[in-house]
């Protein structure tokens, strides 16, 4: 009887237009409400909460992603990075620099090793020891790692001012998959000009075998291209990245989503 009266009262209330006058009126879950009404009210509440969260969460996640460097990055280089295998179980066991045969290959139709050809490519105002020679005597390097101009002069005490860097270091390559290569593949990697740059000698020494998670060029304007070249090298040779290395590269790429992979 109580339920019947309650229903009649609610119907009469609505017919008389009282509901329109009470703009702030909300239905409450009363002990006498039928289960179907409770279910409808719960569904409405859930829909409102879902819409609210959908509007709020993107605004929360975007700055968090920028701070942590973990939000999604788009672009050709980012796509190549995401295609790399992530492997955090790495080891340098058995690594020897000589295993890569750096400067032990003559594939250029002359008597010069890869260092001379990188110098000739990366320096300006290049001069050779004599006409027809392939060994660089002097030149000017606009160093990508520091942004400085360095005058290169061949000599026992001066040649080290400009050194040749493996962008993805040999030791890094070893622990990223090169430990399973045969000698031919390692020699190819060790002398691949795509992975070699003429750079400031001191910066090269500071970098050592560090990955992007531990070292980046002090020249901020070059970091995007540096990360892109590392990714290009790892893609070319199907090398892996660690999760920290990948996160560091993603953070760099946030500044340059349109960055392209360097051509080989």
UniProtKB/TrEMBL annotation:
Record keywords, A-Z: Membrane, Transmembrane, Transmembrane helix
Classification via PANTHER family: AMP-DEPENDENT SYNTHETASE_LIGASE DOMAIN-CONTAINING PROTEIN-RELATED, SECRETED PROTEIN
Residue ranges annotated for the GmrSD restriction endonucleases C-terminal domain, each copy included: 115-252
Transmembrane segments: 39-57
Coiled-coil region list: none
Pfam families in the record: GmrSD_C
Protein name as annotated: Deoxyribonuclease
């Amino acid at each position: 009887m109580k339920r019947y009266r309650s229903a009649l009262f609610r119907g009469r209330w609505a017919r008389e237009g009282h509901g329109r006058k009470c703009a702030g009126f909300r239905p409450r879950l009363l002990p006498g409400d039928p289960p179907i009404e409770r279910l409808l009210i719960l569904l409405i509440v859930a829909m409102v909460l879902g819409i609210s969260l959908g509007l709020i969460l993107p605004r929360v996640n975007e700055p968090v992603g920028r701070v942590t460097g973990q939000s999604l990055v788009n672009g050709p280089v980012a796509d190549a990075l995401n295609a790399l295998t992530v492997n955090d179980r790495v080891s340098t066991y058995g690594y020897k620099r000589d295993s890569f045969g750096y400067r032990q290959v003559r594939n250029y139709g002359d008597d010069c090793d890869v260092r001379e050809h990188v110098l000739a490519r990366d320096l300006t105002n290049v001069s050779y020891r004599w006409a027809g020679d392939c060994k660089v005597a002097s030149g000017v390097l606009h160093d990508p790692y520091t942004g400085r101009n360095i005058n290169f002069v061949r000599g026992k005490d001066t040649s080290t001012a400009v050194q040749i860097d493996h962008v993805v270091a040999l030791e890094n390559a070893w622990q990223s998959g090169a430990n399973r290569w045969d000698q031919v593949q390692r020699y190819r990697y060790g002398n691949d000009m795509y992975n070699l740059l003429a750079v400031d000698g001191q910066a090269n020494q500071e970098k050592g075998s560090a990955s992007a998670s531990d070292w980046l060029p002090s020249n901020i304007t070059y970091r995007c291209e540096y990360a892109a070249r590392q990714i290009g090298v790892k893609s070319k040779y199907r090398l892996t990245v660690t999760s920290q290395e990948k996160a560091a590269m993603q953070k760099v790429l946030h500044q340059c989503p349109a960055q392209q992979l360097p051509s080989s």
